[in-house]
Write a structure and sequence with these properties.
single chain; alpha+beta; 6-stranded antiparallel beta barrel; 4 helices
Length: 154
């Protein structure tokens, strides 16, 4: 059986998410975009810095995702900060709803990419880190970097 080639192009990453949250589970979902929005996404004009998802009446919506207006779009450009619907199956939505009912958990957008011509968003169930957790993860990362540096010298 031949392995299928992964033709995905990462458009935007939420680097702040791994620093502020502990990511427990991830899920890939489609996103509903207008014609000019997908053109901006293909040009990598997306900001996921504060993006999060919320479940409302059985549907998942993405908030605070900034997609810059397309230059040639003129009056057809929608609001860059509008909420956007995420496409998931009912079973997946129920699973996410159950995960976010726990105290302190939320849905965070981790990255957006183009896969087989369609825009996809990777969202994760995340629990917020405390300040001391952030310091601990920074220390661990620095120690790993020092170890790699020492091994490289040899």
């Amino acid at each position: 059986m031949a392995k299928e080639k992964d033709n995905s192009h990462v458009v935007a990453r939420n680097r702040k998410a791994n620093h502020d949250f502990t990511i427990e589970d991830t899920i890939e979902c489609g996103i509903v975009l207008t014609g000019t929005e997908i053109k901006s996404v293909r040009q990598s004009k997306v900001n996921l810095k504060d993006a999060f998802a919320r479940i409302e009446r059985g549907e998942v919506w993405l908030y605070q995702c900034h997609i810059s207006p397309y230059e040639q779009g003129n009056r057809y450009n929608p609001d860059p900060m509008r909420r956007r619907k995420l496409l998931l199956k009912k079973r997946e939505i129920a699973k996410l709803e159950k995960a976010t009912e726990r105290d302190g958990y939320t849905l965070v957008a981790l990255k957006m990419y183009i896969k087989r011509g369609f825009a996809k968003v990777l969202i994760g169930t995340a629990k917020g880190k405390k300040r001391y957790d952030k310091r601990q993860s920074l220390k661990e990362r620095d120690m790993k970097r020092d170890i790699q540096r020492a091994l490289k010298v040899r």
